[in-house]
Write a structure and sequence with these properties.
The complex is a heterodimer of chains A (364) and B (321). Chain A has 13 helices and three strands; from the N terminus they run ααααααααβαβαααβα. Chain B folds into two domains: 213 residues, P-loop containing nucleotide triphosphate hydrolases (Rossmann fold), CATH 3.40.50.300; 76 residues, Alpha-Beta Plaits (2-Layer Sandwich). Chain B has ten helices and 13 strands. In chain B, the strands form three sheets. In chain B, strands 5-6-7-3-8-9 form a six-stranded mixed beta sheet, sandwiched between helices. A four-stranded antiparallel beta sheet of chain B has the order 11-12-10-13, covered by helices on one side. The chains are: A mainly alpha (364), B alpha/beta (321). The complex binds adenosine-5'-triphosphate and magnesium ion (MG). Magnesium ion (MG) binds next to helix 1 of chain B. Chain B: Pfam families: ABC_tran.
């Protein structure tokens, strides 16, 4: 048998790539993003699971809204709580559903063998990641759209202003997008879909519950005993004659410097939404949940007062509501930053050619 | 093109190869999946990539498709580096050995999605999708959800998907698995047609008999190394043929008179009626047959014992992993 070895020309230099649109595959393109988003949305819309989920969501939000509205009607109370409660309920439900919308987008596709065939095309990693994020976000917005009738109805019952209503809806939409982006990031990081789902739920729980617990647990750490200004009846006056009078003096007091930990509350989606929906200038003690949360957060943010009020002789002045410095821009910015990190991680991990592969996975 | 060009003073220089890989290495942890691959695939040829399980065929194709970075070595596919160049991506079609289909997308939507991913305008993409569906005979299933297709139909859809961007270089990883005999024949003629039109095809498969009938060249991999590159259509290859007759003794008498060396056929069920003979080419076979029949030997058949690829494969010291 005669075999012919194909000459390999060992000394021959490899010809350079012809100059061309070689950089275009690295950038983001609207056509690429749209291709991926349409692909993802088509798959979602056609599954019956999706329609069932929307129907269940509609029924749930409707039921809760009607119960809340009915409760206020029956008790004859002021329905200022209705919008706040319904919005909080929609947010809570949204935070449960949104992680499922994007947290398996990348590792799920990789396991199903449908990721690599897109990666070899002219689509850039950014096209794929942003397309998937937009599709997940659009799905989350569909849930929000389904709840809009009830949100509008409860807003008409009372509890917010027109500007507050629109701001709340926009911020809620953005927060759901942030959760999708975080989920997308985790789906690019972990090989298993169960892992990324759990991590996304942990992230959401960290933002909503664990941050709250941390805030409480860190309170002793930021509590110190200091010399502070006190307005009240001094101990000398107490020991002396019977005419008590309030005066300003300095004394040792335990002071909790919550101005160092207030951001733990500010990143909480519930706090952010309360701040956007709250009506300005209301007494937090007899208005809705938004005003209560807002004034509590504001107090925490400003930390201990310059002068501690301890005068029990005259009635305390109503707590001042600080509307001038809203908290939500800080919280929203922090959340958007987290979402951006998630998206950046996804783009990074979608880059081919792979140098390292996550353990135990194959490309194809 | 596969037609050899006359090498004259005014002839253009040889076209650059469709695929050129030099000293490729790629490890996964301690497993050296590709450990020294040198590969040249002629433009417009169909080249077989053959090797035992775990010899690194899929890994090599992933590197060529620009999905895996080699640890060491250089690659040119369609004249560009597949890892960094959009030009290479737009010129390469890749069909993985295992791939999924998107839930609830129809066959035609799968193809239009891929066309969009290659930045084809929508109208052009749709036209190309239908053209390819007709090529792989899936046009009457165009509206069926892709994941309800049978395995062979999915495989054909995968082939159409790899062709959507009219690639210059086609990388196929076991494309024929699950195909029925007719589809195999159609795939063969499809690939030959593509090659005749200038497409470079690199195809991995374990079914050597099938490759035998369509490939020009073959590259053998063993333990991540290229052990031999052959140009099968070029040159003379002495092959072993099986000669069957009704009258064994008559054949033996004629053979010793005509000075033809016969080897005993140990695999044959009918004992003395079947012998093996080494022949250089088809013309030698025809001459032998004519002589034997002319001498009155009742010949039943004369056929190659095994395909050229199979023979080459077995003669190589390849090891399974
Ligand atoms: N992602 C990976 N991680 C770890 N090892 C891998 C990975 N991909 C491939 N390998 C190893 O590299 C070797 C080559 O694998 P490859 O898939 O390229 O073989 P192959 O030639 O395609 O085999 P087959 O004929 O069975 O398809 C095998 O030993 C395999 O276990
Ligand atoms: Mg393989």
């Amino acid at each position: 048998m005669t075999t012919f070895d194909v000459p390999l020309e060992p000394g021959h230099p490899l010809d350079p790539a012809p100059p061309g649109p070689d950089t275009s595959a690295r950038a983001i393109s609207w056509q690429g993003v749209r291709t991926i988003a349409v692909l993802e949305l088509r798959q979602r819309i056609r599954s019956t699971r999706w329609r069932v989920a929307l129907a269940v969501w509609f029924a749930l939000v409707g039921l809760v809204s009607i119960l809340i509205g009915g409760a206020f009607a029956a008790l004859g109370g002021d329905p200022t709580w209705s919008f706040g409660l319904v919005l909080m309920f929609v947010l809570g439900l949204g935070l449960v559903v949104a992680p499922t919308l994007a947290s398996t987008a990348i590792n799920g596709d990789r396991n199903a063998g449908t990721l690599a065939i897109l990666q070899v095309t002219l689509l850039s990693p950014a096209d794929i990641a942003v397309g998937k994020l937009l599709a997940g976000w659009a799905a989350a917005l569909a849930f929000l759209a389904v709840s809009l009738p009830f949100l509008i109805w409860s807003a008409l019952l009372g509890g917010t202003t027109v500007a507050g209503f629109f701001l709340s809806i926009v911020v809620l939409a953005l927060l759901l997008g942030v959760v999708c982006a975080i989920g997308l990031g985790f789906s690019a990081l972990t090989a298993r879909t169960a892992g990324s789902s759990v991590l996304t739920y942990v992230a959401v729980a960290s933002l909503t519950v664990i941050s709250l617990i941390l805030f409480a647990l860190t309170a002793p750490l930021v509590t110190t005993t200091e010399e502070v200004e006190v307005y009240g009846v001094s101990e000398e006056a107490m020991a002396g004659d019977q005419t008590y009078e309030c005066e300003t003096f300095t004394a040792q007091r335990e002071v909790t410097h919550t101005e160092r930990t207030w951001w733990l509350l500010a990143i909480n989606p519930f706090v952010i939404l309360a701040d956007t929906g709250a009506q300005p200038g209301l007494d937090p003690r007899d208005s809705g949940p938004f005003e209560a949360i807002r004034s509590a957060t504001n107090q925490v943010r400003s930390g201990p007062p310059d002068v501690h009020q301890e005068c029990w002789l005259d009635s305390a002045p109503p707590p001042t509501v600080d509307d001038a410095a809203p908290i939500w821009p800080w919280g929203l910015a922090a959340n958007l930053l987290l979402g951006a990190v998630g998206l950046a991680v996804a783009i990074r991990r979608l880059r081919v050619p792979y140098r390292t592969l996550p353990g135990g996975t194959r490309v194809a | 093109m596969s037609t050899p060009q006359p090498a004259g003073p005014g002839a253009p220089p040889d076209p650059p190869p469709g695929i050129l890989a030099r000293d490729l290495h790629r490890s996964f942890g301690t497993v050296r999946a590709v450990a020294g691959v040198d590969l040249t695939v002629r433009r417009g040829s169909v080249t077989a990539l053959v090797g035992p399980n775990g010899s690194g065929k899929t890994t090599l194709l992933l590197i060529l498709a620009g999905l895996l970075a080699p640890d060491h070595g250089s690659v040119l596919v369609a004249g560009a580096d597949p890892g960094s160049s959009a030009t290479a991506r737009s010129r390469v079609g890749w069909m993985p050995d295992a791939f999924g289909t998107w839930d609830s997308l129809t066959a035609v939507e799968v193809l239009t999605t891929m066309a969009g991913a290659y930045r084809l305008p929508a109208g052009q993409g749709r036209a190309r999708a239908w053209e390819l569906l007709r090529t792989v005979h899936l046009d009457d299933l165009a509206a069926a959800p892709a994941h309800t297709l049978s395995r062979g139909q999915k495989q054909r859809l995968g082939m159409a998907r790899a062709l959507i961007n009219s690639p210059e270089v086609l990388l196929l990883d076991e494309p024929a698995s699950g195909l029925d005999p007719r589809s195999r024949i159609e795939m063969r003629s499809l690939l030959r047609g593509l090659a005749a039109a200038g497409t470079t095809v690199l195809i991995s498969s374990h079914v050597l008999a099938e490759l035998d009938e369509m490939v020009d060249d073959a590259v053998f991999l063993s333990r991540g190394r290229t052990v031999s590159s052959e140009q099968l259509r070029v040159g003379v290859t002495e092959r072993r043929w099986r000669l069957r007759t009704l009258d064994g003794p008559a054949l033996q008498r004629w053979a010793s008179a005509a000075r033809v060396t016969l080897h005993p056929d140990t695999d044959a069920p009918d004992g003395a009626g079947s012998v093996l003979v080494d022949l250089t080419d088809d013309a030698a076979a025809a001459a032998l047959l004519a002589a034997a029949v002319g001498a009155g030997v009742p010949v039943v058949s004369l056929a190659p014992v095994s395909g050229r690829l199979e023979q080459a494969y077995l003669s190589l010291d390849t090891e399974r992993r």
